[in-house]
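Deliverable D5.2: sample structural annotation.
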Amino acid sequence: MSEFEEVKASLLAWQEDLQKTQIGMDTFWVLFGGCLVFLMQCGFGMLEAGSVSSRNVVAIMYRNLLSTCTSAVLFFCCGWAFAFGETGNRFIGESNFFLRGLPDTTTSVTSTVYTGAKIFFQFSLCTTSATIVSGALAERTQDIAYASCWALFSSIIFPLAAHWCWSSSGWASATLSGHEGRIGMGVFDFAGATTVFVLGGFAALAGAIVLGPRKRSYRGKKISRFSKGDEAKESILFAGHNKVYQVMGIMILWAGWFGLNLASTGTLHNRGSRIAPRIAINTALAASGGGFAVIIADSVRQVINRGDKMKERTPSVAWKTYADRMHLVTEDIPDDAFAGYSLSYDLRLLCNGILCGLVSSAAGCAVIEPWASLIVSFVTGLVYTAVSKLLRVIQIDDPLDAFAIYGCSGLVSLILTAFFAKPAHVDEVYGVDFTRNGYYGIFYGGDVNQLGVQVAVGLTVAVWSFSLNLLLFLSLCKIGRLRLPDSESTSQDAKGHHVRAYH
């Protein structure tokens, strides 16, 4: 072998080693992000447990674990095949059932990772989306209804939406090769605003509508959350029992969101290392913007209503109910229980605002500037406030505001991304074909076509999730397998699990 051939062989070997190192690095990046997303299940569990009555905590945690188990089995059996099967059409994948016949590696536009890493990451997203629904069904739903919803979600609803938006052959995918059968140039949904959060949020709305409001036994009669009178509306009867759990859940979710958004790059070298810092900054700012928006909106509402409350000088409904239940005398009611004396800062609203901001970061965290991320999250926080109030007015009981937080915030942020997507970032993330054809932010001179794509895809996924789940819940209601018959008077922990969360 000549000296030239030896050098050539050495270079080829070095190139092969470098390629393997890059694949290994990208695979670790995706797996680590998937672990953080999976950790969000702990955050959801703590948030839900803190937001319900103390008598139903064990039931909530049990169902969260069961959701993960159900999603794992069904996604690995058929969900992956429907979402990312090697063969298929614009609507659905058709191969690799039970993870059979998988290639060693999966190649996208910018990276190559071992296939198992992508499967695990997508499973984490699937179980996250399915868990969102449980918040709207809390405290009044039979186990069979939960299991049916998760099964449908993990095997059909999420996989098909993921195929449409993220696979290399989906009709709404920005990575689809060629233009035939694709809407525009594909949707800007970097980390799952549509396929994870709109999907889960609109399923939650369907469940909350069919189930009806929660009820409690009080003074020998059944009180609905929306009953009129002394026990009206947001009384102590329906308040979450542990604010610490709620805050810890939010912080875990916030940490997990960095894994969700960052690992969606699919790579850590080349493009990934350049856009990852921007994604991390946008994620942090979005959460902050959503939190401030909700608190500001609530403070303005209190100031507007302050004059009427000052005239009454009577204790709030919540304090009267609490005092009555605790057998307190009038003197035990603190001075700040009298409405209208000062602003009240609601910890639950701040938590929900932060979640709204995090959801808003998913669609465009890679293609918008940090200042735009603040604007988008602030708008979604205001929309959440309005929708949450609307649901109360029309008496739809969503215990964790799952629809307002996830469904509405995901849809609004998806639309706003069409206004704020910066051309240079779009080139970096999706390729130069987008900007050459005018598919970037309207505020940067882009065409309105991308706005049409965002709206069409978002509404399609929303209708897809809402309609299938509505059909499921109505069917379960028809056969008497949806609502617990005695949820207002019986502890689910005691009746279903023969144990209490606290002793």
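Annotation notes: The first helix runs from residue 3 to 51. The chain is about 65% helix and 5% strand.
The annotation will be released with the project's public dataset once the embargo ends.
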